[in-house]
Amino acid sequence: MLKTSNLNLNKPEGTDTVDINDLNQNADIIDSKFAGSAGHKHTGAAGDGAPIPLAGIDSAAKTTAGGAQANRLAVTNSSGRVGDAEKVGGQALSNLDSRFAAASHSHSWGQITGKPSSFTPSSHGHTLAEITGLQAALESKETPAGAQAKVDAYAARRDNPNNVTKEQVGLGNLIDYGVATQSEAQAGSSNAKYMTPLRTKQAIDKFAPVKSVAGRTGDVTL
Questions:
Q1: How far apart are CA 122 and CA 119, in angstroms?
Q2: What is the pLDDT of residues 22-41, one digit of tens each?
Q3: DSSP letter assigned to residue 78
Q4: Contacts from 131-135 at CB under 8 Å and sequence distance 24+?
């Protein structure tokens, strides 16, 4: 009967008689190798199995100088080990080496490579509600009807709201006289009044020569 090279298990040959005891012996050998496997560790310490190397993890990170479990993972790249980090529940890593950027870090525009030379937006549109503050801004603007009403009201004013002077409109030499009344025109005594055509006629009629006497016209001898 042949034996296996590692656990020395029985290997019956084709000419051997099958014996149940040989099979049971194999089972006992295998079972003994798993005795106390609950909580079994591969730390390299006494009573534990040898450290199990994993791809990309530095074996030195598995043990301390004294051989005890360090509970740390090596961080490596193509150049070798660049730092290490703690295992948290076998899942997350913390306390990364200073070579790794913090989450709050930033880069200047010039440090970013491979960016496009222009950022032309694609054709798109927005509703009024999607533009912040636009509705309120539009409501605060003057409507055409409201603007026209203000223009009309301003044009109807006669109180010279812009304080325009007579010099500004080419009337600098015009004396600010009022218009004569009929009595003033007929009296002919004021030199500070303007005469309208009506007032002029009224004054002429007042001072015109007698046109007839007792129904006679022309030269009349009294």
A1: 9
A2: 889 989 888 887 766 555 66
A3: T
A4: none
